[in-house]
């Protein structure tokens, strides 16, 4: 999906821009159709390069079916959540991946963390979100139930 296609989409918020940043490191396997790694930002501001993400101090938050999530503290003190996708085959290659990321990048809802940026290269796929410090949805839902169940059991025993 080209930049002009993305910016002409009706679903992009007014005033929102997409900024592209190309990694300075060329891909060694040019025959695969992947030219270079590319960092794409959805909020119109290029805040960091992929090298900044890789250099950041990171704490693993968890693993899932699609990859591993990390809390990364950048050199400037900003904290982001980075999802490092597993090496899965992408049916349509780079264009299919970029299309899916463009759709995710347009999602705006008060209860959903927006995709801020993504990085795509042959060997590395990263999704970047703002870090939310209150934990994950599972613990918000089930952790509360566990606490309530323990309180109920205690009340029953007394």
UniProtKB/TrEMBL annotation:
InterPro entries from the UniProt entry: Kinase-like_dom_sf (IPR011009), PRK1-6/SRF4-like (IPR046959), Prot_kinase_dom (IPR000719), Protein_kinase_ATP_BS (IPR017441)
Origin: domain of life: Eukaryota
Transmembrane intervals: 137-157
Keywords of the record: ATP-binding, Membrane, Nucleotide-binding, Transmembrane, Transmembrane helix
Cell membrane is among the record's keywords: no
SUPFAM superfamilies for the chain: Protein kinase-like (PK-like)
UniProt domain Protein kinase: residue ranges: 55-158
UniProt-listed Pfam families: Pkinase
Protein residues bound to ATP: 83
GO terms for MF: ATP binding; protein kinase activity
Keyword Transmembrane helix found: yes
PANTHER family (UniProt xref): LEUCINE-RICH REPEAT RECEPTOR-LIKE PROTEIN KINASE PXC1 (PTHR48007), PROTEIN KINASE DOMAIN-CONTAINING PROTEIN (PTHR48007:SF9)
Record-given protein name: Protein kinase domain-containing protein
